[in-house]
Protein backbone atom coordinates (compact mmCIF):
# COMPACT_ATOMS: atom_id res chain seq x y z
CA UNK A 1 0.00 0.00 0.00
CA UNK A 2 2.54 2.58 -1.18
CA UNK A 3 0.03 5.46 -1.19
CA UNK A 4 -1.50 4.73 2.24
CA UNK A 5 0.48 7.41 4.10
CA UNK A 6 -0.64 10.09 1.63
CA UNK A 7 -4.24 8.90 1.93
CA UNK A 8 -4.10 9.16 5.73
CA UNK A 9 -2.51 12.60 5.52
CA UNK A 10 -5.32 13.78 3.24
CA UNK A 11 -7.86 12.28 5.64
CA UNK A 12 -6.32 14.19 8.56
CA UNK A 13 -6.29 17.49 6.66
CA UNK A 14 -9.90 17.10 5.52
CA UNK A 15 -11.07 16.15 9.01
CA UNK A 16 -9.28 19.05 10.67
CA UNK A 17 -10.26 21.79 8.22
CA UNK A 18 -13.57 20.97 6.49
CA UNK A 19 -16.67 20.28 8.57
CA UNK A 20 -18.77 17.47 6.97
CA UNK A 21 -22.04 18.19 5.20
CA UNK A 22 -24.32 16.51 7.76
CA UNK A 23 -22.73 18.53 10.58
CA UNK A 24 -23.10 21.77 8.62
CA UNK A 25 -26.80 21.10 8.09
CA UNK A 26 -27.23 20.49 11.82
CA UNK A 27 -25.54 23.82 12.58
CA UNK A 28 -27.80 25.53 10.02
CA UNK A 29 -30.89 24.05 11.69
CA UNK A 30 -29.63 25.35 15.01
CA UNK A 31 -29.17 28.83 13.59
CA UNK A 32 -32.75 28.79 12.32
CA UNK A 33 -33.99 28.26 15.88
CA UNK A 34 -31.95 31.05 17.48
CA UNK A 35 -32.58 34.79 17.36
CA UNK A 36 -29.48 36.25 15.72
CA UNK A 37 -29.65 39.39 17.88
CA UNK A 38 -29.00 37.39 21.08
CA UNK A 39 -25.65 36.36 22.54
CA UNK A 40 -26.21 32.79 21.35
CA UNK A 41 -27.19 34.10 17.93
CA UNK A 42 -23.97 36.10 17.77
CA UNK A 43 -22.01 32.99 18.75
CA UNK A 44 -23.64 30.92 16.00
CA UNK A 45 -22.90 33.64 13.45
CA UNK A 46 -19.24 33.58 14.49
CA UNK A 47 -19.22 29.77 14.27
CA UNK A 48 -20.65 29.94 10.75
CA UNK A 49 -17.95 32.41 9.69
CA UNK A 50 -15.24 30.25 11.22
CA UNK A 51 -16.40 27.13 9.36
CA UNK A 52 -16.03 28.93 6.04
CA UNK A 53 -12.69 30.48 6.94
CA UNK A 54 -11.18 27.14 7.96
CA UNK A 55 -12.23 25.49 4.70
CA UNK A 56 -10.99 28.39 2.59
CA UNK A 57 -7.62 28.62 4.33
CA UNK A 58 -7.24 24.84 4.80
CA UNK A 59 -6.49 25.48 8.47
CA UNK A 60 -7.81 23.84 11.64
CA UNK A 61 -11.43 24.64 12.46
CA UNK A 62 -10.48 24.57 16.14
CA UNK A 63 -6.99 24.95 17.56
CA UNK A 64 -7.53 21.89 19.78
CA UNK A 65 -7.25 19.09 17.25
CA UNK A 66 -7.72 16.60 20.05
CA UNK A 67 -6.56 13.03 20.36
CA UNK A 68 -6.55 11.62 16.81
CA UNK A 69 -8.62 8.43 17.07
CA UNK A 70 -8.77 5.96 14.18
CA UNK A 71 -11.15 3.01 13.76
CA UNK A 72 -9.91 0.80 10.93
CA UNK A 73 -11.47 -2.30 9.36
CA UNK A 74 -9.11 -4.40 7.26
CA UNK A 75 -9.43 -7.57 5.19
CA UNK A 76 -7.52 -10.63 6.33
CA UNK A 77 -3.90 -10.45 5.21
CA UNK A 78 -3.39 -6.68 5.31
CA UNK A 79 -0.23 -5.73 7.22
CA UNK A 80 -1.45 -3.69 10.17
CA UNK A 81 2.08 -3.08 11.45
CA UNK A 82 3.03 -1.25 8.25
CA UNK A 83 -0.28 0.63 8.28
CA UNK A 84 0.45 1.85 11.80
CA UNK A 85 3.87 3.13 10.71
CA UNK A 86 2.27 5.03 7.82
CA UNK A 87 -0.35 6.53 10.14
CA UNK A 88 2.39 7.74 12.49
CA UNK A 89 4.28 9.31 9.57
CA UNK A 90 1.12 11.05 8.36
CA UNK A 91 0.44 12.36 11.89
CA UNK A 92 3.95 13.81 12.13
CA UNK A 93 3.63 15.47 8.71
CA UNK A 94 0.22 16.96 9.55
CA UNK A 95 1.63 18.35 12.80
CA UNK A 96 4.63 19.89 11.03
CA UNK A 97 2.31 21.51 8.48
CA UNK A 98 0.02 23.06 11.10
CA UNK A 99 -2.99 20.83 10.43
CA UNK A 100 -2.71 19.28 13.90
CA UNK A 101 -1.60 20.93 17.14
CA UNK A 102 1.12 19.03 19.05
CA UNK A 103 -1.08 17.45 21.74
CA UNK A 104 0.85 14.44 23.05
CA UNK A 105 2.05 15.19 26.59
CA UNK A 106 3.96 12.92 28.97
CA UNK A 107 1.61 12.49 31.93
CA UNK A 108 4.47 12.34 34.47
CA UNK A 109 6.96 14.92 33.20
CA UNK A 110 4.58 17.26 31.35
CA UNK A 111 6.88 17.21 28.33
CA UNK A 112 5.19 17.66 24.95
CA UNK A 113 6.56 15.26 22.30
CA UNK A 114 6.08 17.97 19.67
CA UNK A 115 4.92 15.57 16.94
CA UNK A 116 1.72 14.02 18.35
CA UNK A 117 3.44 10.67 18.88
CA UNK A 118 3.92 9.03 22.25
CA UNK A 119 2.63 6.30 24.51
CA UNK A 120 -1.04 5.88 23.59
CA UNK A 121 -1.10 8.55 20.86
CA UNK A 122 -2.56 8.47 18.35
CA UNK A 123 -5.34 6.02 19.22
CA UNK A 124 -5.70 3.28 16.58
CA UNK A 125 -8.32 0.52 16.77
CA UNK A 126 -7.93 -2.28 14.19
CA UNK A 127 -10.71 -4.74 13.40
CA UNK A 128 -10.80 -7.37 10.69
CA UNK A 129 -13.78 -7.85 8.41
CA UNK A 130 -14.72 -9.88 5.37
CA UNK A 131 -15.07 -6.93 3.02
CA UNK A 132 -12.49 -6.29 0.29
CA UNK A 133 -11.57 -2.66 1.07
CA UNK A 134 -9.89 -0.94 4.01
CA UNK A 135 -12.29 1.30 5.96
CA UNK A 136 -10.51 4.09 7.87
CA UNK A 137 -12.45 6.51 10.09
CA UNK A 138 -10.97 9.38 12.09
CA UNK A 139 -12.37 11.63 14.79
CA UNK A 140 -10.62 14.70 16.23
CA UNK A 141 -12.32 15.34 19.58
CA UNK A 142 -10.86 18.23 21.55
CA UNK A 143 -9.98 18.15 25.23
CA UNK A 144 -12.63 20.66 26.27
CA UNK A 145 -15.51 18.44 25.18
CA UNK A 146 -13.64 15.25 26.14
CA UNK A 147 -13.55 16.57 29.71
CA UNK A 148 -17.37 16.76 29.72
CA UNK A 149 -17.78 13.05 28.98
CA UNK A 150 -19.56 11.39 31.88
CA UNK A 151 -20.47 7.89 32.99
CA UNK A 152 -23.35 6.84 35.24
CA UNK A 153 -23.72 3.62 37.23
CA UNK A 154 -27.39 2.77 37.71
CA UNK A 155 -29.34 2.93 39.91
CA UNK A 156 -28.36 6.46 40.87
CA UNK A 157 -29.79 9.64 42.37
CA UNK A 158 -29.41 12.51 39.90
CA UNK A 159 -29.55 16.21 40.69
CA UNK A 160 -32.93 17.63 39.74
CA UNK A 161 -34.18 14.34 38.32
CA UNK A 162 -34.36 12.05 41.32
CA UNK A 163 -33.90 8.31 41.10
CA UNK A 164 -32.64 6.82 37.83
CA UNK A 165 -33.28 3.10 37.62
CA UNK A 166 -32.04 0.33 35.35
CA UNK A 167 -34.51 0.96 32.57
CA UNK A 168 -35.10 3.19 29.57
CA UNK A 169 -36.42 5.96 31.77
CA UNK A 170 -33.33 5.88 33.94
CA UNK A 171 -31.19 6.07 30.79
CA UNK A 172 -33.28 9.05 29.64
CA UNK A 173 -32.52 10.88 32.88
CA UNK A 174 -28.79 10.17 32.58
CA UNK A 175 -28.63 11.64 29.09
CA UNK A 176 -30.50 14.81 30.08
CA UNK A 177 -28.27 15.21 33.10
CA UNK A 178 -25.18 14.75 30.89
CA UNK A 179 -26.29 17.67 28.71
CA UNK A 180 -27.06 19.77 31.79
CA UNK A 181 -23.71 19.15 33.51
CA UNK A 182 -21.76 20.08 30.37
CA UNK A 183 -23.33 23.58 30.32
CA UNK A 184 -21.25 25.62 27.83
CA UNK A 185 -17.89 24.16 28.81
CA UNK A 186 -17.92 21.57 26.03
CA UNK A 187 -18.52 24.24 23.36
CA UNK A 188 -22.25 23.80 22.97
CA UNK A 189 -24.31 23.40 20.92
CA UNK A 190 -22.99 19.85 20.92
CA UNK A 191 -23.46 16.30 19.70
CA UNK A 192 -23.57 13.34 22.07
CA UNK A 193 -22.87 9.65 21.68
CA UNK A 194 -24.38 7.35 24.31
CA UNK A 195 -23.32 3.82 25.19
CA UNK A 196 -25.67 1.65 27.25
CA UNK A 197 -24.14 -1.37 28.98
CA UNK A 198 -20.70 -2.94 28.70
CA UNK A 199 -18.09 -2.33 31.39
CA UNK A 200 -16.52 1.01 32.23
CA UNK A 201 -14.09 0.80 29.32
CA UNK A 202 -16.27 -0.69 26.59
CA UNK A 203 -19.17 1.55 27.57
CA UNK A 204 -17.14 4.64 26.76
CA UNK A 205 -15.85 3.03 23.55
CA UNK A 206 -19.42 2.33 22.47
CA UNK A 207 -20.41 5.93 23.26
CA UNK A 208 -17.58 7.34 21.15
CA UNK A 209 -18.36 4.96 18.29
CA UNK A 210 -21.87 6.45 18.12
CA UNK A 211 -20.23 9.71 17.03
CA UNK A 212 -19.21 7.99 13.79
CA UNK A 213 -22.87 7.62 12.84
CA UNK A 214 -24.28 10.16 10.40
CA UNK A 215 -26.25 12.97 12.02
CA UNK A 216 -29.35 12.30 9.92
CA UNK A 217 -29.50 8.50 10.25
CA UNK A 218 -32.30 6.63 12.03
CA UNK A 219 -31.57 4.19 14.83
CA UNK A 220 -32.53 0.65 13.74
CA UNK A 221 -33.55 -0.22 17.34
CA UNK A 222 -37.06 1.18 17.77
CA UNK A 223 -36.78 2.00 21.49
CA UNK A 224 -33.45 3.74 20.99
CA UNK A 225 -34.85 5.68 18.03
CA UNK A 226 -37.65 6.97 20.26
CA UNK A 227 -35.13 7.85 22.94
CA UNK A 228 -32.97 9.81 20.48
CA UNK A 229 -36.02 11.73 19.26
CA UNK A 230 -37.09 12.49 22.82
CA UNK A 231 -33.64 13.81 23.78
CA UNK A 232 -33.42 16.01 20.71
CA UNK A 233 -36.86 17.46 21.41
CA UNK A 234 -36.33 18.10 25.12
CA UNK A 235 -32.63 18.77 25.74
CA UNK A 236 -32.98 22.13 24.00
CA UNK A 237 -35.66 23.07 26.54
CA UNK A 238 -32.94 23.33 29.19
CA UNK A 239 -32.08 26.80 27.85
CA UNK A 240 -28.30 26.41 28.12
CA UNK A 241 -27.75 27.67 24.59
CA UNK A 242 -24.69 28.06 22.42
CA UNK A 243 -21.50 28.53 24.51
CA UNK A 244 -23.72 28.37 27.60
CA UNK A 245 -25.00 31.89 26.91
CA UNK A 246 -28.64 30.83 27.33
CA UNK A 247 -30.87 30.22 24.34
CA UNK A 248 -32.86 27.81 22.25
CA UNK A 249 -30.07 25.59 20.86
CA UNK A 250 -28.09 23.37 23.24
CA UNK A 251 -27.88 20.03 21.42
CA UNK A 252 -27.49 19.34 17.69
CA UNK A 253 -27.35 15.54 17.66
CA UNK A 254 -27.89 12.46 19.84
CA UNK A 255 -26.93 8.87 18.93
CA UNK A 256 -27.44 5.90 21.27
CA UNK A 257 -26.00 2.37 21.12
CA UNK A 258 -26.43 -0.65 23.37
CA UNK A 259 -24.43 -3.75 24.32
CA UNK A 260 -24.75 -6.49 26.91
CA UNK A 261 -23.53 -5.97 30.47
CA UNK A 262 -22.65 -7.84 33.64
CA UNK A 263 -25.54 -8.63 36.03
CA UNK A 264 -24.01 -6.39 38.71
CA UNK A 265 -23.25 -3.44 36.40
CA UNK A 266 -25.42 -1.02 34.46
CA UNK A 267 -23.39 1.80 32.93
CA UNK A 268 -24.65 4.68 30.83
CA UNK A 269 -21.66 6.38 29.18
CA UNK A 270 -21.94 9.71 27.38
CA UNK A 271 -19.34 11.10 24.96
CA UNK A 272 -19.90 14.83 24.52
CA UNK A 273 -18.65 16.41 21.29
CA UNK A 274 -18.48 20.13 20.57
CA UNK A 275 -20.15 21.88 17.64
CA UNK A 276 -16.84 21.44 15.74
CA UNK A 277 -17.76 17.81 15.10
CA UNK A 278 -14.71 16.71 13.12
CA UNK A 279 -14.98 13.16 11.84
CA UNK A 280 -14.41 11.78 8.38
CA UNK A 281 -13.58 8.46 6.74
CA UNK A 282 -12.20 6.90 3.60
CA UNK A 283 -12.41 3.56 1.84
CA UNK A 284 -8.89 2.61 0.74
CA UNK A 285 -7.68 0.18 -1.91
CA UNK A 286 -5.85 -2.61 -0.03
CA UNK A 287 -3.36 -3.05 -2.88
CA UNK A 288 -2.34 0.56 -3.61
CA UNK A 289 -3.43 2.44 -0.49
CA UNK A 290 -5.22 5.03 -2.63
CA UNK A 291 -8.56 6.51 -1.58
CA UNK A 292 -11.47 4.93 -3.41
CA UNK A 293 -14.27 6.77 -1.66
CA UNK A 294 -14.94 9.36 1.06
CA UNK A 295 -17.37 7.93 3.62
CA UNK A 296 -19.01 11.15 4.82
CA UNK A 297 -20.41 13.92 2.67
CA UNK A 298 -17.98 16.77 2.09
CA UNK A 299 -18.92 20.12 3.57
CA UNK A 300 -17.79 22.00 0.47
CA UNK A 301 -20.67 23.92 -1.04
CA UNK A 302 -23.05 23.29 1.90
CA UNK A 303 -24.12 26.50 3.62
CA UNK A 304 -24.45 26.84 7.39
CA UNK A 305 -26.91 29.68 6.93
CA UNK A 306 -30.38 28.77 8.11
CA UNK A 307 -33.10 28.54 5.47
CA UNK A 308 -34.97 31.72 4.69
CA UNK A 309 -32.42 34.09 6.21
CA UNK A 310 -30.28 36.09 3.76
CA UNK A 311 -26.57 35.38 4.01
CA UNK A 312 -24.70 38.32 5.57
CA UNK A 313 -22.00 40.10 3.65
CA UNK A 314 -18.78 39.16 5.45
CA UNK A 315 -16.55 41.97 6.67
CA UNK A 316 -12.92 41.15 7.36
CA UNK A 317 -12.02 41.50 11.02
CA UNK A 318 -9.03 43.61 9.99
CA UNK A 319 -11.11 46.03 7.88
CA UNK A 320 -9.15 49.15 7.07
CA UNK A 321 -10.17 52.24 8.96
CA UNK A 322 -12.52 50.43 11.29
CA UNK A 323 -10.87 51.80 14.41
CA UNK A 324 -12.17 55.30 13.86
CA UNK A 325 -15.39 54.52 12.05
CA UNK A 326 -17.62 53.56 14.98
CA UNK A 327 -18.19 50.17 13.36
CA UNK A 328 -16.63 47.12 14.94
CA UNK A 329 -14.91 44.78 12.45
CA UNK A 330 -17.38 42.08 11.47
CA UNK A 331 -20.46 44.08 12.50
CA UNK A 332 -22.11 43.56 9.11
CA UNK A 333 -22.70 39.95 10.08
CA UNK A 334 -24.58 40.94 13.23
CA UNK A 335 -27.98 42.50 12.47
CA UNK A 336 -28.58 45.62 14.49
CA UNK A 337 -25.12 45.76 16.05
CA UNK A 338 -24.89 48.81 18.31
CA UNK A 339 -22.36 51.56 17.80
CA UNK A 340 -19.00 51.25 19.48
CA UNK A 341 -18.74 53.21 22.72
CA UNK A 342 -15.49 54.69 24.00
CA UNK A 343 -14.79 53.45 27.52
CA UNK A 344 -15.63 56.83 29.07
CA UNK A 345 -19.07 56.90 27.46
CA UNK A 346 -19.65 53.32 28.53
CA UNK A 347 -19.01 54.30 32.13
CA UNK A 348 -21.51 57.14 31.89
CA UNK A 349 -24.12 54.81 30.43
CA UNK A 350 -23.51 51.85 32.71
CA UNK A 351 -26.87 52.21 34.39
CA UNK A 352 -28.79 52.81 31.19
CA UNK A 353 -30.75 50.13 29.30
CA UNK A 354 -28.68 48.18 26.81
CA UNK A 355 -29.48 48.19 23.12
CA UNK A 356 -29.60 45.71 20.26
CA UNK A 357 -30.25 42.44 22.06
CA UNK A 358 -29.23 43.70 25.52
CA UNK A 359 -25.55 44.51 24.95
CA UNK A 360 -23.27 47.43 24.25
CA UNK A 361 -19.99 47.37 22.41
CA UNK A 362 -16.93 48.87 24.06
CA UNK A 363 -13.51 49.28 22.47
CA UNK A 364 -10.52 48.95 24.83
CA UNK A 365 -6.76 48.98 24.34
CA UNK A 366 -4.31 47.23 26.65
CA UNK A 367 -3.14 47.92 29.29
CA UNK A 368 -6.62 48.53 30.72
CA UNK A 369 -7.46 50.70 33.72
CA UNK A 370 -9.60 49.63 36.65
CA UNK A 371 -12.02 52.47 35.84
CA UNK A 372 -12.62 51.11 32.35
CA UNK A 373 -13.11 47.59 33.67
CA UNK A 374 -15.61 48.63 36.34
CA UNK A 375 -17.69 50.37 33.66
CA UNK A 376 -18.39 47.00 32.03
CA UNK A 377 -21.44 44.83 32.70
CA UNK A 378 -22.38 41.27 31.86
CA UNK A 379 -23.57 41.19 28.24
CA UNK A 380 -21.26 43.92 26.94
CA UNK A 381 -19.21 43.09 23.86
CA UNK A 382 -15.60 44.18 24.30
CA UNK A 383 -13.38 44.84 21.27
CA UNK A 384 -9.74 44.54 22.30
CA UNK A 385 -6.59 45.90 20.71
CA UNK A 386 -3.02 45.87 21.94
CA UNK A 387 -0.96 43.08 23.46
CA UNK A 388 -2.45 40.04 25.19
CA UNK A 389 -0.73 37.01 26.69
CA UNK A 390 -1.74 33.36 26.44
CA UNK A 391 -1.71 31.27 29.58
CA UNK A 392 -2.98 27.76 30.29
CA UNK A 393 -2.52 25.05 32.89
CA UNK A 394 1.29 24.88 33.06
CA UNK A 395 1.73 28.66 33.16
CA UNK A 396 -0.87 29.22 35.88
CA UNK A 397 0.71 26.58 38.08
CA UNK A 398 4.15 28.11 37.49
CA UNK A 399 3.04 31.68 38.23
CA UNK A 400 1.71 30.73 41.65
CA UNK A 401 5.33 30.54 42.88
CA UNK A 402 7.27 32.61 40.33
CA UNK A 403 7.32 36.01 38.66
CA UNK A 404 6.39 36.68 35.03
CA UNK A 405 8.83 37.69 32.29
CA UNK A 406 6.55 40.63 31.37
CA UNK A 407 4.54 43.23 33.28
CA UNK A 408 0.95 42.00 33.61
CA UNK A 409 -0.47 45.03 35.40
CA UNK A 410 -3.58 46.02 33.41
CA UNK A 411 -3.02 43.07 31.10
CA UNK A 412 -5.27 40.52 29.42
CA UNK A 413 -4.64 36.79 29.82
CA UNK A 414 -6.01 34.56 27.07
CA UNK A 415 -6.74 30.93 27.91
CA UNK A 416 -5.53 29.60 24.58
CA UNK A 417 -3.18 26.95 23.22
CA UNK A 418 -2.65 28.08 19.62
CA UNK A 419 -1.48 26.20 16.55
CA UNK A 420 1.80 27.84 15.57
CA UNK A 421 4.22 27.52 12.66
CA UNK A 422 7.68 29.03 12.36
CA UNK A 423 9.55 30.08 9.22
CA UNK A 424 12.43 32.43 8.40
CA UNK A 425 10.22 35.42 9.26
CA UNK A 426 9.30 34.08 12.70
CA UNK A 427 6.24 32.59 14.34
CA UNK A 428 2.79 32.63 12.72
CA UNK A 429 -0.58 31.88 14.32
CA UNK A 430 -2.52 29.22 12.39
CA UNK A 431 -5.42 28.77 14.84
CA UNK A 432 -6.18 30.47 18.15
CA UNK A 433 -9.56 29.88 19.76
CA UNK A 434 -10.13 29.77 23.54
CA UNK A 435 -9.72 26.76 25.82
CA UNK A 436 -12.04 25.81 28.69
CA UNK A 437 -11.31 28.15 31.58
CA UNK A 438 -12.67 26.22 34.55
CA UNK A 439 -9.42 24.21 34.75
CA UNK A 440 -7.69 27.38 35.99
CA UNK A 441 -10.20 28.00 38.80
CA UNK A 442 -7.77 26.86 41.55
CA UNK A 443 -5.24 29.49 40.39
CA UNK A 444 -6.99 32.32 38.60
CA UNK A 445 -8.13 34.47 41.52
CA UNK A 446 -4.67 34.45 43.08
CA UNK A 447 -2.99 35.21 39.74
CA UNK A 448 -5.34 38.17 39.12
CA UNK A 449 -4.51 39.72 42.48
CA UNK A 450 -0.78 38.96 42.35
CA UNK A 451 -0.09 40.50 38.95
CA UNK A 452 -2.84 43.11 38.45
CA UNK A 453 -4.54 41.36 35.52
CA UNK A 454 -7.68 43.16 34.37
CA UNK A 455 -9.29 40.69 31.98
CA UNK A 456 -9.30 36.95 31.44
CA UNK A 457 -10.46 35.55 28.10
CA UNK A 458 -11.58 31.94 27.70
CA UNK A 459 -14.70 29.86 27.25
CA UNK A 460 -17.23 28.24 29.54
CA UNK A 461 -16.83 30.63 32.45
CA UNK A 462 -15.20 30.28 35.85
CA UNK A 463 -16.29 29.70 39.44
CA UNK A 464 -16.94 31.64 42.65
CA UNK A 465 -13.26 32.09 43.64
CA UNK A 466 -12.48 33.85 40.36
CA UNK A 467 -15.72 35.86 40.52
CA UNK A 468 -14.78 37.11 43.97
CA UNK A 469 -11.32 38.16 42.75
CA UNK A 470 -12.84 40.02 39.78
CA UNK A 471 -15.09 41.92 42.17
CA UNK A 472 -12.41 42.74 44.72
CA UNK A 473 -9.62 43.63 42.29
CA UNK A 474 -11.59 45.06 39.38
CA UNK A 475 -11.53 42.55 36.57
CA UNK A 476 -13.78 40.86 34.03
CA UNK A 477 -14.08 37.48 32.39
CA UNK A 478 -14.57 37.66 28.62
CA UNK A 479 -16.10 34.66 26.88
CA UNK A 480 -14.73 34.13 23.39
CA UNK A 481 -16.48 31.73 21.02
CA UNK A 482 -15.13 28.24 21.55
CA UNK A 483 -13.83 26.54 18.43
CA UNK A 484 -13.65 29.76 16.40
CA UNK A 485 -9.92 29.33 15.86
CA UNK A 486 -9.70 30.96 12.43
CA UNK A 487 -11.97 33.85 13.37
CA UNK A 488 -9.65 34.81 16.24
CA UNK A 489 -6.42 34.01 14.41
CA UNK A 490 -7.37 36.76 11.95
CA UNK A 491 -7.40 39.24 14.85
CA UNK A 492 -3.79 38.45 15.78
CA UNK A 493 -1.52 40.74 13.80
CA UNK A 494 1.88 39.83 15.21
CA UNK A 495 3.63 37.43 17.57
CA UNK A 496 5.69 39.81 19.72
CA UNK A 497 7.55 37.12 21.67
CA UNK A 498 7.19 33.80 23.44
CA UNK A 499 8.28 32.52 26.83
CA UNK A 500 8.32 29.07 28.43
CA UNK A 501 8.66 27.08 25.24
CA UNK A 502 9.81 24.24 27.49
CA UNK A 503 6.11 23.81 28.35
CA UNK A 504 5.37 22.98 24.69
CA UNK A 505 3.61 25.10 22.07
CA UNK A 506 0.08 24.88 23.54
CA UNK A 507 1.23 25.70 27.09
CA UNK A 508 3.86 28.36 26.28
CA UNK A 509 3.22 32.04 27.08
CA UNK A 510 2.68 33.75 23.72
CA UNK A 511 2.72 37.55 23.61
CA UNK A 512 0.31 38.48 20.84
CA UNK A 513 -0.52 41.83 19.22
CA UNK A 514 -4.24 41.90 18.43
CA UNK A 515 -6.70 44.23 16.77
CA UNK A 516 -10.49 43.93 16.78
CA UNK A 517 -10.59 40.90 19.11
CA UNK A 518 -14.25 40.56 20.20
CA UNK A 519 -15.51 38.73 23.30
CA UNK A 520 -18.53 38.98 25.57
CA UNK A 521 -18.44 39.99 29.24
CA UNK A 522 -19.97 37.05 31.11
CA UNK A 523 -18.49 37.76 34.58
CA UNK A 524 -18.06 41.36 35.70
CA UNK A 525 -16.50 43.30 38.59
CA UNK A 526 -19.89 43.74 40.28
CA UNK A 527 -20.40 40.08 41.24
CA UNK A 528 -22.52 39.12 38.23
CA UNK A 529 -22.00 35.84 36.37
CA UNK A 530 -23.98 34.82 33.30
CA UNK A 531 -22.68 31.26 33.75
CA UNK A 532 -24.05 30.99 37.29
CA UNK A 533 -27.40 32.43 36.15
CA UNK A 534 -27.73 30.02 33.21
CA UNK A 535 -26.76 27.04 35.36
CA UNK A 536 -29.35 27.97 37.99
CA UNK A 537 -32.04 28.47 35.35
CA UNK A 538 -31.24 25.23 33.54
CA UNK A 539 -31.28 23.31 36.84
CA UNK A 540 -34.84 24.50 37.43
CA UNK A 541 -35.81 23.46 33.90
CA UNK A 542 -34.14 20.07 34.32
CA UNK A 543 -36.52 19.27 37.17
CA UNK A 544 -39.51 19.29 34.77
CA UNK A 545 -38.22 15.99 33.35
CA UNK A 546 -38.34 14.16 36.68
CA UNK A 547 -41.51 12.16 36.01
CA UNK A 548 -41.46 8.87 34.02
CA UNK A 549 -41.84 8.98 30.24
CA UNK A 550 -40.99 5.46 29.06
CA UNK A 551 -43.04 2.95 31.06
TrEMBL record:
Domain Fe-S hydro-lyase tartrate dehydratase beta-type catalytic per the UniProt entry, residue ranges: 358-533
Keyword Ribosomal protein: no
Residue ranges of domain Fe-S hydro-lyase tartrate dehydratase alpha-type catalytic in the record: 6-280
Source organism, top-level taxon: Bacteria
EC number: 4.2.1.2
Keywords from the UniProt entry: 4Fe-4S, Iron, Iron-sulfur, Lyase, Metal-binding
Cofactor needs: [4Fe-4S] cluster
Family the entry assigns: Belongs to the class-I fumarase family.
Protein known as: Fumarate hydratase class I
Species of the source: Paenibacillus borealis
Amino acid sequence: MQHFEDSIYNLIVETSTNLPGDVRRAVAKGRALEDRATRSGLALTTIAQNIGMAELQVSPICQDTGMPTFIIHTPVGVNQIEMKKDIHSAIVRATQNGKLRPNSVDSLTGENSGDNLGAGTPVIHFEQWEEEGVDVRLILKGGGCENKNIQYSLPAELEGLGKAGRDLDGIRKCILHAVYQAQGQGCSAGFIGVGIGGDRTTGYELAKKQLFRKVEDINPVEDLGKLEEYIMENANKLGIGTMGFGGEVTLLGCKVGVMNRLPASFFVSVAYNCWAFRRQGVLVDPATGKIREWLYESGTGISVDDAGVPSPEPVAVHAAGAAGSGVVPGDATIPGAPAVLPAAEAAEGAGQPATAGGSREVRLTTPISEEDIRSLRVGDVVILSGEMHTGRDALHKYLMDHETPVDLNGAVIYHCGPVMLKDEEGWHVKAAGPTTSIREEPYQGDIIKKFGIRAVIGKGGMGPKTLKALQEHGGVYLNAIGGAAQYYAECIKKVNAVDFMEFGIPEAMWHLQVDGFAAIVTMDSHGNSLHADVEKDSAAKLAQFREPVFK
